[in-house]
Amino acid sequence: MDKEIKVLVADDEGDFRQLMTFWLQSKGYSVLTAADGNEAVGVVREQRPDIVFLDLNMPVMDGPEALKKIREINKDLPVIVISAYIESPIMREIEPFGISGVFYKGGDFKDGLSLLEAALRTHKKLKR
After folding, report:
1. Which residues, 6 or more positions from 11, have their beta carbon under 8 angstroms from its beta carbon?
2. Residue 26: closest CA among 91, 113, 98
3. pLDDT tens digits, residue range 65-86?
4. Coil, strand or helix: which one is 54?
5. What one-character DSSP code corresponds to residue 75?
């Protein structure tokens, strides 16, 4: 790989964040983390990740609000939403802000990897 790809995992559940971090690192990605939406926006602003996994339900600033602020910083940054609920009314709220996919908590991490690689190919022209 020519360039280290930085993945931001923004989720308020520490165990899930740790598991995603370990798993993504095992696949060769550099991982940044945030425990809430406000932290996520700060990481996007300061550390410029290549892609974001963003939970919808977080304290301090929720996912939809964080996504709006992320779009003010970088309108093209691929964002994959993390959701525990397949049918969430919040999905309609975030639709106008453009997401690259939805990774369901409880789903297989392989699905998350497929979403990540597809988003990187589409948005960044990055290859693994």
Report:
1. 17, 20, 34, 35, 53, 55, 58, 82
2. 113
3. 999 999 999 998 999 888 776 6
4. strand
5. T
Residue given tokens 């453009």 in the structure block? 98
Instruction: Please report where in the chains the tokens 């280290």 appear, as a residue.
Output: 4
Nearest to 7 by CA among 84, 85, 79: 79
- Dig out the tokens for 24 from the structure: 């993504």
CA proximity to 7, closest of 26, 15, 72 = 26
Torsion-angle region of 98 (φ positive above 0: left; ψ -120 to 50: alpha; else: beta)? left
pTM: 0.87
In which residue ranges of the chain is pLDDT below 50?
A: 1-2, 127-128
- Quote the radius of gyration of the chain (alpha carbons, Å): 13
CATH for 6-124 is 3.40.50.2300
Backbone angles phi, psi at 118, to 5 degrees: -65, -45
**8 Å CB contact between 21 and 9:** yes
How many C-beta atoms lie closer than 10 Å to residue 86's C-beta?
A: 10
